Amino acid sequence: MKPSPADSLLVDALHWVQRHRVDRETADTPVTADTDLLALGVLDSLGFVQLMTFLAERSGRTVDLLDLDLDDLATLTTLCRVYATAEPADAR
After folding, report:
1. Residues 26-51: tens digit of each pLDDT
2. Which of 11, 43, 66, 84 could be disulfide-bonded to 6 (CB atoms 3.0-4.6 Å)?
């Protein structure tokens, strides 16, 4: 069975976050698909922007951040779902 676009994006996003996380105090805490990235401080503001850029490039889709709720940004599960269901970048 082929993974959904959101699932494929999620696997790539998890690897990306593991390589770019900045939370030295919680570095031993594993980041999962449902880890609250904002509450745990896994990424700094630049890292979060870089993650959004990575997701846009990887998915080929763009997201207007003004259309999102804070809850949409909290976990990789919700972020990947948003990007997997967004309009293709060339449609805007």
Report:
1. 677 789 999 998 888 888 889 999 99
2. 84
Q: What's the whole-model pTM score? A: 0.86
- Please compute, for residue 60, the number of CA atoms within 13 A of its CA located in the half-sphere on the CB side: 4
The whole-chain average pLDDT of the chain stands at 87
Angle, CA 80 vertex, CA 79 and CA 82 arms, to 5°: 65
Measure the CA–CA gap between 88 and 92, rounded to whole angstroms: 7
Contact 89, 60 (CB under 8 A): yes
Compute how many other C-beta atoms are within 10 angstroms of the C-beta atom of residue 58.
Answer: 15
The residues spanned by each domain of the chain are 5-91
Tokens of 50: 């870089």
The tokens for 60 are 């080929």
Topology of the domain covering 5-91: 1.10.1200
Cβ distance 34 to 75 under 8 Å? yes
